[in-house]
Design brief:
Shape: globular
Bound molecules: adenosine-5-diphosphoribose
Number of helices: 10
Order of helices and strands: EHEHEEHEHEHEEEEEHHHHEEEH
Strand content: 15-25%
CATH class of the largest domain: Alpha Beta
Number of domains: 2
CATH architecture of the largest domain: Alpha-Beta Complex
CATH superfamily of the largest domain: Lactate dehydrogenase/glycoside hydrolase, family 4, C-terminal
Structural class: alpha/beta
Radius of gyration: 19 Å
Distance between the termini: 37 Å
Helix content: 40-55%
CATH topology of the largest domain: L-2-Hydroxyisocaproate Dehydrogenase, Chain A, domain 2
Number of strands: 14
Length: about 300
């Protein structure tokens, strides 16, 4: 394997990301965490599973960032996760310090890396990673849209009994309660969801999608979702390493697109070996535009709070 992917934070999302990536056999993996022995133990366990599934990649665990040297992609999942009753914003102060440290400790050894940020509050942490690393926006991308859209796709599949492969959904905006499931663009085999589903069922799916993360937190009680977030990161990593030019929703730094500047925001992007190659601009209906503006206002507020905590 020539590609190298380092995952900072070997907790639930980090370790599960490594699992999904090892199954894809696209890169050697490094897991870094502050907990002594934990990343080493998880890496060794995962490595020992690979003869069974027939995948030839190496998985290394470490407490030392030097293990990440020469990474093609750095995934940041380090930080605290939500507990019941907490919003993603409640994590801001703690996670800002952790994400900043993770970027500072990886950037020198991996000056060519593309960063994928998963730590919440997502859009704000991606913004922090961009400003800390001083990388071009192409190389710092936040994972959120694939996850939120996958949740919506799963709910549509449950409702209709149609294969998830036929269901395309697009959830844009900030990765918070104001996210915007675009029902005008979402479809089943080309048939708009607005035609396919009764309005009340569609509205219920939109609502459940928005609160999808919270639903898992209240069930788990001790942490937040990890299978689906990690699978979303794995899809992004694969699209980048294989230079697929894959269009997916993800959090990108806005430079005027959708009328937005200087924030990270969930929009359709094209992913390839250079990272975020392009932001795709949809023409939107008036109600969707208004919903995106409301979502952007929430992200802006979070970024303002970040500025009061960290000198950028
Ligand atoms: N460097 C490396 N690892 C760190 C650091 C640090 N400075 N600080 C904390 N960690 C590690 C913790 O030791 C823990 O193992 O980050 C890991 C986080 O794992 P979990 O607590 O299992 O949380 P997880 O579910 O993976 O979520 C992490 O991702 O999806 C988001 O909202 C979620 O912000 C949260 C993050």
């Amino acid at each position: 394997m020539t590609a190298k992917v380092s995952i900072i934070g070997a907790g639930m999302t980090g370790a599960t990301t490594a699992h999904w990536l090892a199954e894809r056999e696209i890169a050697d993996l490094v897991l870094v965490d502050v907990l002594e022995g934990m990343p080493q133990g998880k890496a060794l366990d995962l490595q020992e599973s690979l003869p069974i599934v027939g995948k030839d990649v190496t998985v290394v665990g470490s407490n030392d960032y030097t293990a990440t040297k020469g990474s093609d992609i750095v995934v940041i999942t380090a930080g605290i996760a939500r507990k019941p009753g907490m919003s993603r914003e409640d994590l801001l102060a703690t996670n800002a310090e952790i994400v900043r440290t993770a970027v500072q400790n990886t950037i020198q050894g991996s000056p060519d890396a593309i960063y994928i940020i998963l730590t919440n509050p997502l859009d704000t942490m991606a913004y922090l990673a961009l400003k800390t690393s001083k990388l071009p926006r192409e190389r710092v991308i936040g994972q959120a849209g694939i996850l939120d859209s996958a949740r919506m796709r799963a709910f549509v599949a449950m409702e209709t009994g149609v294969s998830v492969e036929n269901i395309s959904c697009y959830v844009l905006g900030g990765h918070g309660d104001e996210m915007v499931p675009l029902t005008s663009r979402s479809n089943i085999a080309g048939i708009s969801l607005r035609e396919y589903l009764p309005a009340d069922r569609l509205a219920a799916i939109v609502e459940r999608t928005r609160k999808g993360g919270g639903e898992i937190v209240s069930l788990l009680k001790t942490g937040s979702a990890y299978y689906a977030p990690a699978a979303a990161v794995a899809q992004m990593v694969e699209a980048i390493l294989k230079d697929k030019h894959l269009i997916v929703p993800a959090s990108a730094y806005m430079q005027g697109e959708y009328g937005l500047k200087d924030i990270y925001f969930g929009v359709p992007v094209q992913l390839g070996r250079k990272g975020m190659e392009k932001v795709i601009e949809y023409s939107l209906e008036a109600d969707e535009k208004a919903a995106l503006e409301k979502s952007a206002a929430a992200v802006k507020e979070s970024i303002q709070t970040l500025h009061t905590l960290v000198q950028l």
